Amino acid sequence: MATSNISDFYLPTILTLVAFLIYRCILYPSIFSPLSKIPTPHWSCSISPVWILWARFNGRENRTLHAAHKQYGPIVRVGPKELSVNSVEAVKTIYQGGFDKHEWYSLFNNYGVPCTFSSAHAKHHSLRKRMVSHVYSKSYINASPALAAQADIIINSRLLPLIQKSTSASQHPHGIDVHSLFCAAAMDFISSYCFGACRSADFIRRKSYRDHWLELYTVRKGYGFFAQELPRLSKALSVVGLDPTPSWVHAANRELEAWCKELSDATIRFLENEGTGEKSAINTADDPVVVRALLAGIEKEYQTSGTASPLYTTAIQKRDLTVASEILDHVLAGQETTGVALTYLSYHLSQSLTLQRDIRTELLTLNPSPKIGPGGKIQPLPDSKQLDNLPLLHAVVMETVRRYAPAGGSEPRVAPRPCCRIGPYQVPGGTRVSASAYNLHRDESAFPSPETWDHTRWLHRRPDSKQNGDDEKSEKDVYRHFWGFSSGGRMCLGSNFAMHDMKLLIAAIYANYTSHIVDDDGIEPTDAYTGHPKSNSLYLRFERVGAE
Ligand code: HEM
Q1: Looking at ligand 1, which residue's alpha carbon is closest to its atom 36?
Q2: 332 C-alpha to center of ligand 1: Å?
Q3: Cα–Cα distance measured from residue 181 to residue 386, given in angstroms and rounded to the nearest whole number
Q4: Annotated binding-site residue? 25
Q5: What is the per-residue pLDDT for 170?
């Protein structure tokens, strides 16, 4: 009698629970959810995220999504609560529409403190970004005496002597690893702008420390999967001593953080003493433009909103950590992306002496000329505005960022609650939605033969130059589909800075040297959020061009 009472109670309960789970985990997502109307590239996607997680785990996400969009159209459902989109219109809805960033970005909280890149919520994010966005605007960059002085040191005293030395009889046949060199040059630019030239990384000259630093940076790659995609599982495993992230990755992160914190603290101390103990560095090469702007921004926020500021417990109470967190993000974001773009750009230039000659001819129209003078220096350096307006130089840079999209992976955002429309579909709030430059840049309607590096797509097609008829249409298409720096409120903060330092470096080199491939083994890019050559290297040899 007692047994039958127990089964009378448990059986219906268990059956109800099973029915509920079947409805919740299978029937609702695959039949009743509004997302069920969206095509799935694999039968499991409507009930499980395993298909997309597996592609991510194996470093195949970009290619897998590309194939999915080719077959199933611009909006595909890649998980029960996840969409991938690949159309300019959907990108506009999501990224210009100000959807919040997904928690995926919280891995980029350095020192446990958010930065502009990692802030999820619009309000916090815009307060942070506003503090520094003016020093990264095109007009500020083109006119900054500090940046001009920093560029002079980096190009004339660090880069050109090294390239010239590589042309000597003993070094010439082996060439130099330009991937490492360009990451170093990009780091020297961004770290000078953040900390001032005297505290910059000086990676072009400090090759052994640069190698060590790049090693630390590289070993972390590929190990973000568990922490970013499965954060709760990852935390639970760490608690029981089964942390899926290897200890050397934590050690590398700690060392990179300590490196930046030391430079950041030294810069803050310098600025606190400036005008009292220390001579003012303002507008000189040693001006720490970005840290200066950040400190002023945090102080202004405190004066304006005090303890009511949304940033009170972070940026205001943890000012020095916040500065270090923000700057670490800028130097990490700035060095690899720019270094990778320059590597692929020089790789393509090295395959065509005709294109190198045409670029040199264009560069030599500049006044002052970027030719190396008698002292082995380019003095003065080309005017930034004039340089920016050179059509061929602009075209080769744009095509490189299109074809190789150094930050080309999916950029996850969260659909706002309660729901929104993306294209023809209703999307419930909380759904993870992403687009990627990798995919948008392979849209054949805007970029025929998208795998081909073809700079002529961009010639005479700048939105700021007046065009007519057909050209105007295609001009809009190529620029509308270009997403190398993302778009909307979360667009790259450093896009103008990156375009400026890439153009200046290419001008300084190709006005004076030709480059030739020595070893391009492993040049094909990795499939990742930030891709890079598989070998992490490209060996080129340089030859000095005679007076023309
Ligand atoms: C060729 C070089 C570069 C490329 C291709 C690039 C690309 C991008 C892309 C695609 C994003 C959006 C990422 C996302 O939302 O997931 C981004 C964001 C960002 N980038 Fe860059 N970037 C470059 C250089 C730089 C530099 C030099 C800096 C230095 C300040 C920088 C700082 C940032 C920051 C702070 C964000 C976050 C912006 C926000 O959330 O509002 N980037 N970048």
Answers
A1: 492
A2: 10
A3: 26
A4: no
A5: 85
pLDDT, average across residues 55-71: 97
CB 392 within 8 A of CB 362: yes
Residue 548 has pLDDT above 50, yes or no: no
Atom of ligand 1 nearest to the CA of 408: 10
Ligand 1 in contact with 338 (CB < 6 A)? yes
**Tokens read off for 203:** 């990676």
Mention every residue, 6+ apart, whose C-beta is less than 8 A from residue 153.
192, 197, 285
Give ipTM to 2 decimals. 0.99
Among candidates 105, 120, 202, 117, which has minimal Cα distance to 162?
202
Buried b (16+ CB within 10 A) or exposed e, 184-201: bbbbbbbbbbbbbbbbbb
Q: Where are the alpha helices (DSSP H) in 58-144?
A: 61-72, 88-91, 122-133, 138-143
Q: List 447's β-bridge partners, or say none.
A: none
Closest ligand 1 atom to the C-alpha of 406?
A: 5
The per-residue pLDDT for range 94-119, each reduced to its tens digit, is: 999 999 999 999 888 999 999 999 99
Task: Decide whether any atom of ligand 1 lies within 6 Å of the 329 Cβ.
Answer: yes
Distance (angstroms) between ligand 1 centre and the Cα of 414 equals: 19
